[in-house]
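Backbone-to-sequence.
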């Protein structure tokens, strides 16, 4: 199912790209805006100086006896001195006729500022006019003052570098904040994913972890799906348990009648047929019983009723219960357990697991054999070893599966659920089931517990 899952670019990467892209756009926009504002401020500063210079030139123009006199002030040009040694130009016109300075400097219009090419350089030109009125004469004087923009270019280049560095720093900071914001935003989703992934295969309880508002519909849908799935599984397990219970009772009645009939039948072929019937009934009854046990274990595995137990005492109790079965085959059950082997677990499930493992060992052990049951306290583990034919090496990995039986099980009553039950119980307690063959012969089943 996982292989067929279609995926697209991750949310983390998508959000990171979106935030970094936005940060890059803002950094470029910030650079352009700040640089444009700096150009405006720097140009305004140059214009103010040019205006002051132009005003001083116009103020120096006077009429004396009807003649125009301009006492050109030195300060009007010296104030335009810059570290870059910008060149300065001026032109004076009387009633639009050139009087002094650089002819052709005057820009379009009589007043204002303009930028143009002059004398092989780009200059900023300030143009203004003033009307002089005498006793019998009236004239208009127009002056233009210009300055190259080398110093302004140097200033703007420095400002541009500063703004670029600032924008780069802003972008890098925004990238770090984007990564942090993305990780913080995605963390609840990762936490939810981890919480669901850590669950056992049978844990269908609803997700109760607090989640962001945007994830609530997803979590709600997941909880409803798991509720429907749990209800379906519960119904299936209930059906199996009910069916096993209803089958086992009439089977016991049929078996008792078959045994009674066997005592009254003399013909050998009829006796063989009845024994085969009794054997089939035993197999069916055992399968029904184990199905019932498996349904109960499946239900309790998600709701363990833990108690502080001594696994050694629990093992001895099961050995005592199965002693009559062992005596029928003259099999010795040897228990090697420490004085205390504590375990926090569900006693009913553990009893089922031990009973099935020991019962399997008894079934496959030869007559007058020995079954060793060893308990290790640290780490806690229980090993059951028989002296039977052992597990088929190529089937060991498959034997804990439902209804799986080895090739050597022919002629032995069983349903293929004993190891499945043991494995489910051990895994519900956080442990694992390990199957192997002993070097000296026989099968070894080890139940390892994490605590």
């Amino acid at each position: 199912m996982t292989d067929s899952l279609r995926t697209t670019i991750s949310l983390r990467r998508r959000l990171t790209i979106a935030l970094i892209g936005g940060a890059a756009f803002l950094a470029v926009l910030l650079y352009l805006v700040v640089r444009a504002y700096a150009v405006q401020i720097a140009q305004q500063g140059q214009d103010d100086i040019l205006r002051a210079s132009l005003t001083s030139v116009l103020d120096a123009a006077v009429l004396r006896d009807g003649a125009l006199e301009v006492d050109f002030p030195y300060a009007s040009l010296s104030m335009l001195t810059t570290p870059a040694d910008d060149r300065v130009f001026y032109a004076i016109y009387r009633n639009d006729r050139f009087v002094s300075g650089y002819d052709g400097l005057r820009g379009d219009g009589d007043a204002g500022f303009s930028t143009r090419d002059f004398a092989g350089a780009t200059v900023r030109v300030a143009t203004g006019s003033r009307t002089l009125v005498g006793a019998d004469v009236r004239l208009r004087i127009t002056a233009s003052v210009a300055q190259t923009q080398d110093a302004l270019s140097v200033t703007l280049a420095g400002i541009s570098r500063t703004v670029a560095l600032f924008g780069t720093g802003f972008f890098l900071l925004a990238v770090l904040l984007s990564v942090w914001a993305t990780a913080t935003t995605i963390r609840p989703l990762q936490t939810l994913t981890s919480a669901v992934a850590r669950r056992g295969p049978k844990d269908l309880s609803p997700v109760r972890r607090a989640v962001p508002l945007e994830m609530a519909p997803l979590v709600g849908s997941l909880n409803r799906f798991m509720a429907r799935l749990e209800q379906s599984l519960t119904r299936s397990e209930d059906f199996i348990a009910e069916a096993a219970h209803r089958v086992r009772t009439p089977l016991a009645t049929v078996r008792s009648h078959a045994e009674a009939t066997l005592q009254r039948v003399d013909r050998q072929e009829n006796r063989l047929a009845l024994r085969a019937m009794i054997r089939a009934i035993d197999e069916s009854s055992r399968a029904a019983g184990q199905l019932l046990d498996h349904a109960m274990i499946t239900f309790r595995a998600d709701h363990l009723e833990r108690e502080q137990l001594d696994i050694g005492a629990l093992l001895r109790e099961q050995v005592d219960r199965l002693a009559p079965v062992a005596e029928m085959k003259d099999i010795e059950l040897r228990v090697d357990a420490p004085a205390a082997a504590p375990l926090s677990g569900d006693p009913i499930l553990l009893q089922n697991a031990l009973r099935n493992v020991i019962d399997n060992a008894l079934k496959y052990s030869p007559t007058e054999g020995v079954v060793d049951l060893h308990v290790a306290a640290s780490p806690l583990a229980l090993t059951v070893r028989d002296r039977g034919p052992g597990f088929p090496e190529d089937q060991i990995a498959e034997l804990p599966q439902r209804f799986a039986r080895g090739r050597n099980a022919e002629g032995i009553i069983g349903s293929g659920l004993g190891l499945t039950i043991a494995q489910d119980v051990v895994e519900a307690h956080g442990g694992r089931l390990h199957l192997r063959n002993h070097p000296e012969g026989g099968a070894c089943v080890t139940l390892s517990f994490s605590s």
